Structure formats: C-alpha cells, structure tokens
C-alpha cells in the first residue's frame, strides 16, 4: 500500500502570516497522524518563512510515525538535522526567491558536496533521500553518492496543461522509477500532487510513498470552514 507523508509547512504559513500562535503545526501533526497518515514532512527553510526551529524541535518530540525533514544541504541545516535527528532527511535545492521548491537537485553537478553531506547525516543515524527530477542520470548519480532513497519530482507532471503533455511527463516518471528500482533505491514521489492528479502516480507500484502538502492543507481550509463559521456563530449569538 502506498504510504502518505503529509507536509504541514502551510499550516505554519498561515500562522506566520499573522505572527500569532495559531494554527500550530504541532497540533496539525497530531491530527494528521490520528487520521492515519504514515509520516509528517516539514521543510525548514533558510529564511524560516513557515516552519520554525521550535516547530522542528517539538515535532521530533511528538511525531510517532516518521519525521521527514526537507532541507538544503547547507552547514547550518546539517547541524540542525544532526541535533534533532529526524528519521529521514530529504535534501532539496533551495532558492530564497522561489515560491516553492522549483526543481530537483543537480546531483551530477554537486556530486562531492552531496556525498559528504549524505555521509555526515547517515553517520548520525539519519536516512537520506534526494529530491530529483525524473531523469535517469540524476537517479544514477543519487546511487553513486550513497543516497538511501530518491523522491521523484512530480511538479512538471502536475503542471502539464494537456493530456498528451501529462502522458509525456508520466512516461519520464515511469522511466525514472524503473531506473531507481533497478538501483535498489527506495522511491518516493511528490510536489504538486492534488485530489485530481494523484491517481496515476499512486498507481505506480514501485513508488512506496507520496509526500503531499499544499493540496491537503488547502482542502482542510474548505472542508473545515462550515464548522468553523458555525462555532463562531454559536459564540456570538
Ligand atoms: N516533496 C518535496 C521534496 C517538496 O519540497 C515539497 C514542497 O515542500 C513537497 C513534496 C510537497 O509539495 P506540495 O506542497 O506541492 O504537495
């Protein structure tokens, strides 16, 4: 059965928009686990735009399933990971000006630095996944640098505007999955998956885990709004 990791970054985005204490991503993580998800994912960004250091620290204390920390392979983040010990680190590229992670890691170009980072994290008992585009050469390089797993970037598949473009992107993902499977890498996939486009990715049997954030948090706002309004009406009337 495909496992689901829920990324709770955007609960923190809502909190940071007002600089208040709610909604607390810690409370969200507890609800996500109670609903049956297999893991909690968060991205501690250099600019701390959503998840804060305090969130990561508390998540490590309360998450009972699996905590997957997405981060850039910087000295600061490697130190934080080694101190907090998430179960998995997913290394991602990071640019300050991007709205969200835009592409996969260039493992070929950053071979040496990634290999070093992976070794340090693994020595600390942390399993390492690399977020890569569906590209055979990147998958091959991921094995060479010693990654335990790859997370295949589904963003282009999700952004495809026509059926034929989506088919092309799916084909790229399937080829990448075959390559990763051949190299005995564990395989996750994610980015941009939503209630409409997830089915074809969930059908790929080698993909063990899907990591989904924005669409689930966005849906929670809408499916929870009716009750939230009723509760406020009950208070004021
Ligand atoms: N996987 C990775 C590596 C990501 O960087 C993100 C976004 O933080 C996700 C999955 C989740 O993407 P989305 O929020 O679009 O579901």
Low-pLDDT runs: none
Order of helices and strands: EHHEHEHEHEHEHHEHEH
Total number of helices: 10
The counted number of beta strands is 8
What would you call the shape? globular
Helix content: 40-55%
Q: How much is the radius of gyration in Å?
A: 18 Å
Average pLDDT taken over every residue: 97
Classify the secondary structure makeup into a structural class.
alpha/beta
CATH superfamily: Aldolase class I
User: What is bound: which ligands?
Assistant: pyridoxine-5'-phosphate
Query: What is the straight-line distance between the termini?
Result: 47 Å
Strand content: 15-25%
User: How many domain regions?
Assistant: 1
Q: Reading side by side through the largest sheet, how are the strands ordered? A: 1-2-3-4-5-6-7-8
Present the secondary structure layout:
Blueprint: E1 3-7, H1 9-18, H2 25-34, E2 39-43, H3 53-62, E3 67-71, H4 75-84, E4 88-91, H5 111-123, E5 127-132, H6 136-144, E6 149-153, H7 155-159, H8 163-182, E7 186-190, H9 198-202, E8 209-212, H10 214-236
Parallel strand pairs: 1-2, 1-8, 2-3, 3-4, 4-5, 5-6, 6-7, 7-8
């Amino acid at each position: 059965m495909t496992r689901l990791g829920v990324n709770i970054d955007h609960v923190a985005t809502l909190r940071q928009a007002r600089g208040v204490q709610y909604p607390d991503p810690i409370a969200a993580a507890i609800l996500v686990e109670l609903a049956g998800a297999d893991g909690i994912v968060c991205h501690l960004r250099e600019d701390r735009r959503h998840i804060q250091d305090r969130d990561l620290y508390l998540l490590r204390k309360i998450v009972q399933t699996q905590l997957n920390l997405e981060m850039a392979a910087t000295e600061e983040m490697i130190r934080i990971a080694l101190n907090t010990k998430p179960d998995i680190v997913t290394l991602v590229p990071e640019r300050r000006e991007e709205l969200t992670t835009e592409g996969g890691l260039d493992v070929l170009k950053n071979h040496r630095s990634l290999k070093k980072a992976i070794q340090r994290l693994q020595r600390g008992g942390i399993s390492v996944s690399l977020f890569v585009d569906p590209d055979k050469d990147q998958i091959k390089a991921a094995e060479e640098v010693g990654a335990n797993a790859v997370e295949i970037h589904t963003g282009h598949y999700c952004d495809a505007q026509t059926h034929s473009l989506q088919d092309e992107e799916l084909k790229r993902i399937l080829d990448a999955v075959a390559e990763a499977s051949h190299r005995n890498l564990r395989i996750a996939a994610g980015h941009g998956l939503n209630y409409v486009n997830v089915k074809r990715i969930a059908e790929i049997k080698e993909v063990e885990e899907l990591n989904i954030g924005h669409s689930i948090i966005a849906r929670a706002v809408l499916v929870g709004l009716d009750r939230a309004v009723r509760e406020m009406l009950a208070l004021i009337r």
